[in-house]
Structures are given as C-alpha cells and as structure tokens.
Amino acid sequence: MKNIPSTRKKILIVGAGELGMNVLASFIKDYPESYALVGFLDDDKAKWNAVFHSYPVLGGLDALDDMITQLDIQMVVIAISDMDIKKRDKIVQTGMAKQILVKSIPGIRELITQNDSFKALEEVTMQKLLGRSQVKLDEALLVSQITGKKVLVTGAGGSIGSELCKQLLKLAPKKLIALGHGENSIYQLLMDLESDRVEPVIADIQDSDELYDVFAKHKPDIVYHAAAHKHVPLMERSLRSAFKNNFLGTKNVADMAEIFQAETCVMVSTDKAVNPVNNMGRTKRLAEMYIQTKAEDASCNFSVVRFGNVLGSRGSVIPLFKKQIKAGGPVTVTHCEMTRYFMTIPEAASLVLQAGSLAKSGDIYVLDMGESVKIIDLAQNLIALSGYSAQDIAIVESGIRPGEKLHEELLDADEIYQEQISAKIHVGKTVQFDAKKLLCLSEKYRELTETELLNEICILTSKQGMKERMTK
C-alpha cells in the first residue's frame, strides 16, 4: 500500500466499474493534493485482487467496515448506478457508525452533463434522512392519461413543479406548459429540460385576465396546480399575500380549468391545511375547500394532493441545516420534541401524477409517509452523514416560531377512510363547510381590515366555525 501524506483525505470507492473509473480519473487529475485513493470495493468476485491504475480491488462490500478501520479511510464514494437501497443504506449506516463522510455519484446522465465527476458527487442524505424506502408509485395508469395530451403546470419553477415537469416529459405529453411567476426559475427549468415540447409561460395566477389568456391560447387537457406561497413565518407577516396567492390564485386556476373544459385539475396542498394554525395552512385549506366546491358540479375532475414536508425542497429545513453545519454550527432546532412527516421531491411529484390518474372528483389524496420524524433526529443524522460528531457540531433549541405546530397531521380524524385505494395512497372524506361563505369572502376581502380578514378565515377553516355555520 502506498504511503500517503497525512494532509490528504483517504478515499475508498465502492464500485470498480466504469463509474468508479471516472471517479478515479477525476481524483487523480483534479484533486491530487486533497484526496488520496486507497482502493476499490466491488461485489463482482471476478474483480477481486485486480489492480486498476495501480489501485487494488480490496474485496466485496462486506469488507467495508474492516477496510475503514484498517486503512484509516476518511471518505467513501459510492460509484454504482441504481444501487439497491438496502445495500446503500448499509454503507451509509457503516459510515455513520465510523463517523466518516459517505458520498454518492448520481449516475451516468449527471456525469455526462457535468464537466467534473467529483463536482457531481451528492451526499447520501435524503433517502437516509427519510428513514424508510422511497415510495415508487405505479406509472402504468399515467401513460394513457398523459401521452399526447396538453399539460399545464403552475409553479413550474419551484421544487415540486420542476420535478413534476421532469416526470411528465417522460410520459410524452403533446405539450408541457410550464407556468411560473419568476422568470429566472423558468429559464433554469428550460435549460435543465432541453425539450421542444416545453412551452414556457411567465404569468401571475392572481391575475385572472392574464390566466384566461394563457388557458385560451393553450387549452390544456390536464392541470397540475403547484404554485403557492409556502413559507410559514413569512406568511404570518403577509396574510393578504398568502390569501391572494394561495386561495384566490387557486380559485382562478380552477375557474379556468372549468371554463376551458380541462379533463383533470390537481391541486398540490399541505399537511398544514389540517386543523390549520397559521396563515399558510389556513389559506391552503381555503384553496382545498374551493377545489371541493368546484368538484360538485363541474365536468372537470378536481382533486387535492396533500404532502408533508419535502426533503431537499427550497423551503425545507435541510438547506438551513447544511448551511449551519458548513459554518461549524450550531444547528438550530425550534423544539426538541417537534416532529414532521417527510417525503422526497420525486415522491411528491409522483403522488401528484398518481392522484390525477386515480382521482374521483373532490377527493383529497395523501401519501402513506410512514412514521413522523423528530426534527432533532434529522439534525443529528445530517451532522453524522456530513462526517461530524456531536462534539464537533452543537445542536441548540431556538424556540417555536409564530404559526408553527409541535406536531402535524396528514388527515383530520373526520376525513380518514381506513382503507387505502392504492399502495401507499390514502383518500380523505369530504368535510362539510359553508360554500356560500367561502365565495362571499373571495368577493368582499378588499373591504376587510387584516384583522377582520383573519377572523373570517379562522371561522371558515376551524372545526367549530364550520359546525356553527352548517347548523344555522
């Protein structure tokens, strides 16, 4: 074994195939002073004891634990495309136990589209942090619905919207109308997708006239409504903006879907709409209610999809934790007992598509996301996966922010059907509410002070308020 200066981080590559060779070449060429490859591990016994560019294959994956200890390995790089999730989890668990960094090559496509394979390395965090196998939904139902159709996605530049567009393109729509309010995010989406089937549209869902023109021009068959204001603390300071964008914007989209005879309209919602205690949740609940109102007599198939928190999205806690870890800490959690449900961005987008294919008008769909996760456990796991210990990075409690719940729900007790309609998908019951009051609020909100508007919203979205109004 070569003598390696102590200033260089010792690397072990899992996978001695083409991907592993690309990683090797990148380390040798671009990072000779920072990293030193010790060797490879590969389950292909034919490669055992082989030597590639003077670096040996030291055995199979079962030898990982021993090799880390014996060779003082400081980072493991997974260079196997589409590795079995159980094997990947085992490698990550080993790395966490040894307090070393584990990274993964995303795959061949990413290597081709990026100039430097090492820069394409992604930390193996999202799936591990999720604490369960990723849900993969059946795409068979989607093909007949999407192929050859004109599909509109609102909020197309956001985390969920952009992933929706990527998955939709694989299903060969006739046209994909990517609508967003921010030109930079839509421009970036166009660069990422590189497809002549994508029609970019810069428009504001709050402007009904502008939205009318969009629908009149493109006449979409299917609408996925992902546009929303989602940041809880900011919306606590901006009630009217949350109301206009989340509720009135949804109303405009739903109205246009009906006017222009779209086949399906799926609204993306949130677990914060269940027994809402903040402006974001309340306005999303109003939007759900309007979708359910439209579903009662429209020919368009309206439905709602409810998510928990999305790992890796722009509004998630993960980017903040990563920034804090990079700065050396501390990592801040609002409360040590706070829990949330989590899913990955691809899962969230898949559920939206699945809901559109399964939908019975007016239904609320929820993904079975397993057990809720403590935020402090999430922080501890991310610290470990980043190669640090509890002694290196402190975790401090900062206090619950305005509008936050300690625990969140995906379905209210009154909404739950016990049976699942599909693997990993629940459907909620329609809860009664006063539709006339909902429509009245959409028309008279300009006349109300912010306090009066909040009071009206709270009455409409609270259980007691609904019961009182429905019995009058």
- Summing up helix and strand content along with how strands pair, one would put the structural category as alpha/beta
Number of domain units: 3
First and last CA, distance: 83 Å
| Beta-strand residue fraction | 15-25%
Number of DSSP helical runs: 18
The averaged pLDDT comes out at: 82
Q: Please name the CATH topology of the largest domain.
A: Rossmann fold
CATH architecture of the largest domain: 3-Layer(aba) Sandwich
Low-confidence stretches: 107-125, 464-472
Shape: globular
Report the biggest beta sheet as strand number plus sense, adding barrel if it closes: 9 strands, mixed
Rg result? 25 Å
Number of strands: 22
In percent, how helical is the residue content?
Answer: 40-55%
Which strands sit side by side, in order, in the main sheet?
Answer: 10-9-8-11-12-13-18-22-21
In CATH, what is the homologous superfamily of the largest domain?
NAD(P)-binding Rossmann-like Domain
So what's the CATH class of the largest domain? Answer: Alpha Beta
InterPro entries: NAD(P)-bd_dom_sf (IPR036291), PglD_N (IPR041561), Polysac_CapD-like (IPR003869), Polysaccharide_Synthase-Rel (IPR051203)
Family: Belongs to the polysaccharide synthase family.
Domain Polysaccharide biosynthesis protein CapD-like: 151-427
Protein name: Polysaccharide biosynthesis protein
